[in-house]
Structures
1.
Amino acid sequence: MKAMILAAGRGTRMRPLTDHTPKPLLVADDRPLIVHHIERLATAGVRKLVINHAHLGEQIEQALGDGHRFGVEIRYSPEETALETGGGIRRALPLLGDDPFLVVNGDVWCDLEPGALRLTPGDLAQLALVDNPLHHPEGDFVLDHGRVRTTGAPRLTFAGIGLYHPALFADQPEGAFRLAPLLRAAMAADRVGGLHHRGRWFDIGTPERLAALDVLLRASH
């Protein structure tokens, strides 16, 4: 299985930290955030990664190289202009191939085992959902006996980690577009599964949350 790490975000809420450093290279527990993802994926047996980038993206390539020292092969999908999540994945499809692939937001940290996500035959996606954090109490979706719905209760938050079939994106024209409308359309057709991850998860959207993650990881030693 291949995996894609989304690393093209500008990280405006993390300023001034991201004025001169791309968000995925910000450090927690002495390692860049994106390295935490790479190490977890490599441990799970994922050997081929695709990373998109835009803002200060050359720093990401310089820091990670071809991935050899992490035991993986990294290919890059540079974006000259912001393509949003859906457009960024669509741009990278030639690098991802014809089989389902894992996508991880570069600005989250999670102890989910990547192999826990599996596509049910006929599905276009399986999403990892977590309990709603304090900064997002309304949640995103509902998990109903393993199926993800847009309405109902109780609601959970999308963890920014999903397993996708390339057919979810293949009919979309190249360019910028959001992922959420594609997922909602697939949910309406009952083609999205999900799991409730009850382990640790951080949305690293502010310097304060980055600092909190750093404290947690250091304490875990």
2.
Amino acid sequence: MKTDPLNIGILNLMHDKVDTQKRFSKVLTAGRYEVNVQYLYPQMHYQARPVPELVQKISSPLDLSQIHRFDAFIITGAPIEQLPFNKITYLDEVHRLIDQLVTYEVPQLYVCWGAMAAANYLYGITKTPLPEKIFGVFHNYIQHEDPLLTGLEDGFLAPHARYAELDIKKIARDPRLIINATTKDNRLFSFRTRDKHQYFLFSHLEYGQDALLKEYLRERNTHPGVEYIKPQNYFRDPLHMKDPQFSWQRTQRVFFDNWLQTVANDAKTKQLVKE
């Protein structure tokens, strides 16, 4: 096991940047590994306007020359899955980041929109809008055993919140990829590459107990005239949207502990090779 702290880089693309950083810091530092987390933002996102003071305060500009220094890297979700990829102003910067991660064989965890963008760029998997948002807490069923799912029972609970999905049939046909788990309705929980350290996670497993409620309220308050779907299987009192349940807490803990173990093993192997 690596004795030095694990250095994890996170490109934070979420709207609620402070909450997102609190969530990832909590799940990554709660286990047995010592972890340093560095939060980054895409510089191209602010090429036509000043970088907000808050963003500068809590994160650093993405520096592609420093990617080789990380033991692992996460690209978060973003509330833009309804937009075509070519409408994303910083997509080229994300692609160049992915190229660096691949070049230096840095273990990669792509979450929700980050997973969609990476899978599209690396493997040509297309993104399509869902008939309605998948939103709430759902059972997930293991299709293939995977180290990151070790310790989870079939039907484990996890939160989903997205308006789009990747072409699951194309993923299943690609010999480079393997689907690990899906919901009962065949919505993706995760898939991975067979021979690289690339993991594509479609559940917001970093979410804490109140995150789904906050997401619903944000959408409703942004567009008060729109009737947004409420998170399913989440409230103890769904009629009044009260008492949200943190039913995926064990899934969260097991998954991130497993991921950090694979990162630590990879870091140890690289260190032995250097020596």
3.
Amino acid sequence: MRSIWQVAHRVLRAPVTRRAWAELAYVVAGFPLTCLGVAYVLTGAFLSAGLAITALGVPLLALLVPGARGLARVRLGMARTLLGENIASPAPFRPGPGFFTRIRGGLRDTTGWRAVGYLLAALPVSLLSLWVVIVTWAWGLVALTYPIQHMLGVNQMTIVDADGVTRTGFILGSLVLDTWPELLVVSAGGALLLLLAPWAVRAVVLLDRLLIRSLLGPDRSTQRIADLRRTRAHAVDDAAATLRRIERDLHDGVQARLVALGMNLTMVSETLGDDTSETTRALLAAARDNAKSAITELRDVVRGIHPPVLDSGIDAAIATLAARSPIPVDLRTDITTRPTAAIETIAYFCVAELLTNIAKHSGASRATVDVTQPGGRLHLRISDNGKGGATLSSAKLGSAKLGSASLDGGTGLRGLVDRVATVDGTLNLVSPPAGPTVVTIDLPLHT
């Protein structure tokens, strides 16, 4: 008995719940957006087909896809706000710089084409949903209040019956309901429609939910890639934290002990008496020199693991590299958002390796380093006025434009290939004969 009352209570209060009104708002507001999406896709498709014999057909078709993404993103936002659909947004469209790159990216954008499919498939679902809203909510409200409308003389339906009598009331086919008992039956029917309205709308909205989940959310391969990227980001960040911890342990532990050892050996050497043999003095001097060499080598190792200067930020670290460079370096930095530690480390070692390359192999008299953050990315541009002729073989590792690298005259670019590829960065080299050589590196701010 209690469960029956619970069901009855749920049914009776369904029309006044927030969910019912949110789903109604989604259907009503979503219909014009659906019409806009269909018009956009069909117009773009017809224009592309009409211009297929010209050079504009394919680019127009490729540019159709990002626009479909935008409209689908609006619909996905509505579903999140009104329906509570917490679907992860697909990966953003990042085709890369250049007109032809954008065209190729648009034609190959699977997520964008799925958005196009959703915009077209949503039309019949939206039509069905709007029809259900009209039949249940609209007609239910009209029927519920019809006795009042009849009393006020508004919204009247008139018919002439078989006897030639003009009758005014609520007309269903050939049935005329114009007496007060009959009008109360109409009102009861309207109340029944309003009770059924939330459930009917919820059923048709479920079709749209399924479309959104299958076409606007990430597919299995995209989700798998996103999971792998998150796992890789955790691994990269964890590796950076581990290297920083090792650097601090070496600096505060082993290096401090070696310094103390060197000081003790110096003190022992200074306290030796005149009767100490030359062999003993030579052994102490050799031990002291070895301790100094070990400290120097350990400091080099520590800087190679994680340069302490990075604790002050990538701008300060690159400024230190520029100051230490054997050739003059013009440095310009414009960093407003600090990248994560892993990105800073990769950027630092890239600049360090490239400045070393310039000093050793380019024959340049001057170098330039520009560090900026366009579009929420970390962009590095390293150039010199050397002899040029450097080459970087073009291949792809992951999403990076990298491969087995070679630089005429010797290089460490293979290490840069591995470093940049770990975070989906890109590296491009332009080095015509007689120069100048320009290397651009694009990295995300976060792993």
4.
Amino acid sequence: MLTLATTTPGEPELFASLQGEGPSIGRPSTFVRLSRCNLACQWCDTAYTWRFEGDNRPHRDTAAFERKANQLSLDETDVAGRIAALPPDRLVITGGEPLLQGAALARMVAALNEQRPGMHIEIETNSTVAPHPALDPLVHQYNVSPKLAHSGNTADLALIPERLSAWAADPRAYFKFVIAEPGDLDEVLSLQQAHAIPGDRLFLMPEGRSSDVLKARSQWLAEICSRNGFRFTDRLHIHLWGDTRGT
């Protein structure tokens, strides 16, 4: 079984849209959002995937979500069938932290490959969890987003050296760092040097949950990317639909 987030109680967050971030920005994609995360970013815009009632990990909104209304378990073959029925030929598996459910994801993707051969499989991850050995050969692209100090996570939990080095060595892995202020660049440069992260696979993205905040931060972040040879990514879905589920 896979544990998914919901858009409304009992309805899995599984939908067709445009990829809003990273190397595939603008591409028509089917999204499936899984529930549960091993980190707790204070600015997380999907806290309903992990900050359930009784979870006291810090978040700027201090909201706690009722688990039954925000989490749903479905058979992997059922999930594969729902994905196969949607038009896009690209699947983005997001969360939460999807790789916490690696074995079930491997079964789902295998079922999807039988029902809809040739789909491009893209997984978004916080970098801390190694891909399950049965899942890894089925994945075409990893969007790896290590969490910097401003996320509120401690480095020993969020920045695991052996995992960062392994991702850097995998040509399928693209790094996406969330930037809240110009000083965050120092931490990115340090991580890039320590783990030999290729600059052409390194994106910087402004932190923000509204179009106004993203536009303001993009002004100076674009200059930082230009000076340092990094790639810039916006959050297209926020500009188009706001901070909403199922987009």
